Amino acid sequence: MGRKIFNICEMDKASGAAAHKIYNDCIRSGEYAFAAETADFEKWYAGFLPNNRAVAKENGKVIGFAALSPIYRAEYFSGIAAVSVYVEKSRRRLGAGLALLNTLIDSAGEHGLWTLHSYIFTENLASVRLHERAGFREAGMFIEAGTLNGKWKDVFVYEFTLNKHKTR
Which of 22, 53, 60, 87 has the fewest CB atoms found within 10 Å of its own CB? Predict the structure, then answer.
């Protein structure tokens, strides 16, 4: 089975509303993020860097999104951002996640970022493989980084350094 072609475009508020639903569905599953409650749309949308938000559409329907968030407030870390990538459960493993990550990588370089971090629960091997396919490398692990539903979670830190990949 060949990979599907997805339309990847910038996330605006309209497509952001559909992406927000995907995010909240993932939060409710308790498998992908520390967030215990779903996020208010305006707060969620504003938390991403404005020029680094993308959605994947299939037949005009948003099926996934990826976005970058600032990690540190210090000026000397201003080029480092955190990756969020989520795909609707029924549309996973079809290539949308990789297309979204590649779009974010390209966008990050165009907007002055130099390093991307992704924080992945250690049991989320599909996300680990996705990030590795996009050129991320394991940079470390946080042991007992936080609790989710009363259980401690370990988190891999995956990193993409844009200066090492200028030929992308």
Answer: 60
For 79, the domain range is: 7-165
Supply φ then ψ for residue 73, to 5 degrees: -85, -25
What stretch of H or E contains 105?
Answer: helix 96-110
Token code pair at residue 30: 């308790």
pLDDT in tens, 94-144: 788 999 999 999 999 888 899 999 999 999 999 999 999 999 999 999 999
CA separation for the pair 3, 87 (Å, rounded): 15
With CA atoms as reference, report the closest residue to 79 among 109, 103, 118, 107: 109
Retrieve residue 84's tokens.
Answer: 């969020």
Q: What is the value of pTM for the model shown?
A: 0.86
CATH number of residue 49's parent domain = 3.40.630.30
Confidence band, pLDDT 50/70/90 cuts, at residue 90: confident
> Is 158 a member of any domain?
yes
Residue with tokens 């997805």: 6
Would you give the DSSP letter of residue 166? T
